[in-house]
Amino acid sequence: MKYSNVDVNGQKIFYRESGEEHKEYFVLLHGFPSSSHMYRDLIPLLATKYHVIAPDFIGFGQSEAPSRSVFEYSFENLTSYVEGFLKELKIERFYLYVFDYGAPIGFRIAMRNPQKILGIVSQNGNVYSEGLGKKWEARAQYWKNPTLELRESYKQAFALETVKGQYEFGAPSNTVAPDGYLLDIYYSQTIPDYAEIQSDLIFDYQTNVALYPEFQKYLREHQPRLLAVWGKNDPSFVFEGAKAFLKDVPKARVVGVESGHFALESHCKEIAKEILSFF
């Protein structure tokens, strides 16, 4: 495993890398409130077959977190930096693993550059209204009426017990190590202006939902090889979102594992096996 940084438009992006350079690329895009460390166990398993690259988004993990006064924290802008990252590393064609926030970023890239995509793994990476859990009803109301009080209330998403709950809910007992959620908490307390950065992204998430029809059009028109592997007990992005891929990609493979949102924490070997056998 190598740990490196690359400059993209004046901002440092940290990334993890493993696997022989001549092999096909597999790019792993993380979610909230995590970073590339969520792939710490998966990377060595995929690196037996692929050249694996996992960046931290701007404002996450070890990448730079510029001030909100000089950087727009939106999904569109984060996507542009991931695209810049891929360009800097000269990654032209690749498999894509998307999770949570990584899904709208990854699908933006895929629909604009379909020729670059060798295949997609969506692990609790939603692009269908059917996959939105109950909490999104309240989020939709917030997007329509974005009061300061509601913005402040959503900062509970960064609290220790909330993050821990995201990791543990729906997973089998005693299968989730504390490493992941404690590192997320560390970053939430050390990245400058973290709560406001993440609050900007929570509000901007509405742009992803608005793009669902475009993501689905990309899937219908280009029929990428697609594996949807889902923690079936995820209350945020429910399993119906995985099954919905079959509407647009009938040859997709849909697999549910008995876990929650962060399914890699409890089912990494099973998910890696599915990937290695499908692609």
Tell me about this structure.
There is one protein chain. This protein is of the alpha/beta class. The protein has one domain (2-278): Alpha/Beta hydrolase fold, catalytic domain (Rossmann fold, 3-Layer(aba) Sandwich), CATH 3.40.50.1820. Helix content is 42%, strand content 17%. The chain contains 13 helices and 8 strands. It has helices at residues 42-46, 75-88, 102-112, 135-144, 148-153, 160-168, 179-190, 194-204, 206-210, 212-222, 240-243, 245-248, 264-278, and strands at residues 2-8, 11-18, 25-29, 51-55, 94-98, 117-122, 226-231, 253-257. An 8-stranded mixed beta sheet has the order 1-2-4-3-5-6-7-8, with helices on both faces. It is globular. It starts with a strand and ends with a helix.
